[in-house]
Design goal:
It is built from ten helices and eight strands. The protein has an eight-stranded parallel beta barrel, surrounded by four helices. Helix content is about 35%, strand content about 15%. It is an alpha/beta fold.
């Protein structure tokens, strides 16, 4: 299942767009079969926009099915902290390149303790890759305390910005508060779910965030703007205005987002004039 060797490509994409998208094609709502998704990932390495895509996202339980896959993997841990060591050890034995680990805090009553257990398990397993930790719920006192622990252990945050149930999509003020908390602690973060379009839009059933909105909101906050300013950026629907924003520091903190589609983010970047197809 190894993808082909990457050919000589044209000049790399602008830094703001390199490795912005993590290929999460096998996750809802895409639900692509694993073999089809890995084949598409490999074929995409020959395209001019190959730099847009960073890692391939899969579950830890999928690792035995991609033996020898020659591309970076982001591994989603399907269990708790105790499940960190086994799958990652298996990845090493299978010759797989793990670029990052993603794990959700499961103990909603003790998120601080759960982050500490994740860190202890990671240290015991001698994991030397970025660990993105998803904290439950809105930016409550418990969430912020858990974010303190993420920062103290030099891990990263994973922000869930979408949901198949539109009622569970976090609103713009919540997302702005999450990003502000990450930046205040100088913690890098990635996003997941619902960010396959560049600009905030209103699909049937509710609103959906745009990845360009998130980049702009991150830059606004890093430049000293308020949570209210970042909320405005997240709610902006003028793609041209967003595209005109300079983003010198945003990608330092907003590392990537998982998307079941690569073509939709690419098409939006082209339509906004941020990328130019050859």
């Amino acid at each position: 299942m190894a993808p082909p060797d990457a050919p000589v490509r044209p000049d790399p994409l602008p830094e703001a767009w390199r490795s912005l998208v993590d290929d999460a094609a096998i996750f809802p709502p895409g639900n692509a079969p694993l073999h089809d998704a890995t084949a598409a990932f490999g074929a995409r390495r020959e395209e001019w926009y190959a730099d847009l895509v960073g890692s391939f996202v899969l579950r830890d339980t999928d690792l035995p099915l991609v033996r020898g896959f020659g591309a970076p993997l982001s591994v989603v841990v399907t269990g708790g902290a105790g499940q960190l060591a086994g799958p990652l050890g298996a990845a090493a034995r299978l010759g797989l390149e793990v670029a990052a680990v993603e794990i959700a805090v499961r103990d909603v009553d003790d998120p601080v303790g759960n982050v500490r257990r994740i860190d202890a398990a990671a240290r015991a397993a001698d994991l030397d890759v970025p660990i993105f930790i998803e904290l439950p719920g809105p930016a409550s006192a418990a969430w912020l305390a858990a974010a303190d622990e993420v920062a103290a252990y030099d891990h990263r945050l994973k922000l869930r910005l979408g949901n198949v149930d539109h009622d569970l999509v976090p609103d713009a003020p919540t997302v702005a508060t999450w990003i502000d908390a990450a930046l205040d602690r100088e913690v890098r973060f990635k996003a997941t779910a619902g960010l396959h379009r560049a600009v905030r839009h209103e699909p049937e059933g509710g609103g959906a965030h745009g990845f360009l909105n998130v980049l702009v909101a991150t830059q606004v906050l890093w430049d000293g703007g308020s949570v209210a300013d970042a909320t405005d950026a997240l709610e902006q629907r003028d793609g041209a205005a967003l595209a005109a924003t300079d983003l010198p520091s945003a990608r330092r903190w907003f590392t990537s987002f998982g998307s079941c589609s690569v073509t939709e983010p690419l098409d939006d970047l082209i339509s906004l004039g941020l990328l130019e197809a050859p």
